[in-house]
Design goal:
alpha/beta, about 300 residues, Rossmann fold
């Protein structure tokens, strides 16, 4: 397939370009800036989700068979500091993209990257299924839930082959140090260079389901190939770890024993996350996580 990848210069986008090319697809990058030269793609299109005309022109020039929609604001705290931008990009930007496809390439297969944040953080008595209610409890989650609903509306209303993926946290080499695991790795690398012996942390008791980004884009690629239009698909490893466990594992791998200092600016009070039911994804694609978490941590440390 000819796949147009929005947000291609971002963390997940770069890994998806690699995944697509390695599996026989022709991947085109769309972003406001091109991906690094080390990331191979068949072509680059400069376009912003807030510019409908540029989106239409990109689709006409690219002539894609499919689209992996990854563009958007991904850092949860940004929604609190710049809500207008997050609403504009995550909600209106997704609507603009889908409308551009409806008018220029309505038969394309489209996978919209949503988020497990659409379910909120309230405890659930059993693993969350895709048809369970969406109860986001953050502005970021609200924008992702709205984009998720809009995407599946386009499938129902216009017969378009649009699907959504709802992943939990994903990590791997190349992720921004705004996120917790690469932030730890960057501080550990500084210690190894002799720059102090302190690591600043937030809430080490929070538990999260982390999946290697390379396993996540593997799921995305399989969904573009085999997923069913109009459906949402959970993507998760099924294993939860406390943030403190991850920090200790990284320190053990690096052979350091730092002084741990809690930074109030990094503290986020939310605790455990509910388990996601991934049986729909597995039934549709046969996907399973393949990369051991220890390997993920080693690769993050090496890339920091």
């Amino acid at each position: 397939m000819r796949i147009l990848v929005t947000g291609a210069s971002g963390f997940v986008g770069r890994h998806f370009l690699t995944e697509a090319a390695a599996n026989g697809h022709t991947a085109f990058a769309m972003d406001v800036t091109p991906p690094p030269g080390s990331v191979a793609c068949a072509g680059f299109f400069s376009a912003c989700l807030t510019d409908p005309a540029a989106l239409c022109e990109t689709i006409r020039r690219c002539k894609p068979d499919a689209c992996m929609h990854l563009a958007g604001v991904a850092f949860v705290p940004t929604a609190n500091t710049d809500p207008g931008r997050v609403i504009d990009i995550n909600i209106m930007g997704t609507a603009n993209l889908l409308e551009a496809f409806r008018n220029n390439a309505p038969k394309c297969r489209i996978l919209v990257a949503s988020s497990a944040q659409v379910y909120g953080h309230r405890p659930r008595p059993s693993p969350i299924k895709e048809d369970d209610p969406l109860t986001p409890d953050s502005l970021y989650g609200i924008t992702k839930a709205a984009a998720d609903d809009i995407s599946r509306f386009f499938a129902r209303q216009y017969g378009m082959a649009v699907m959504t993926a709802r992943p939990y946290n994903h990590v791997g080499p190349g992720q921004s140090p705004h996120f917790v695991v690469p932030a730890f790795a960057m501080q550990i690398r500084a210690i190894l260079r002799g720059q102090g012996n302190v690591i600043k942390v937030g809430n080490l008791e929070s538990r999260r389901d982390f999946t290697d980004v390379r396993d996540v884009v593997h799921a995305y690629r399989l969904l573009l190939e085999r997923g069913e239009a109009g459906f949402a698909y959970n993507v998760a490893s099924g294993h939860q770890l406390a943030i403190g466990q991850i920090l200790h594992q990284l320190c053990d791998l690096a052979g350091v024993s730092p002084d741990i200092v809690q930074d109030p600016a990094l503290y986020r009070p939310d605790g455990a996350c509910s388990t996601l039911d991934t049986s729909r994804l597995i039934a549709a694609t046969g996907w399973q996580p393949r990369i051991p978490f220890t390997q993920t941590m080693k690769d993050i440390l090496e890339a920091a």
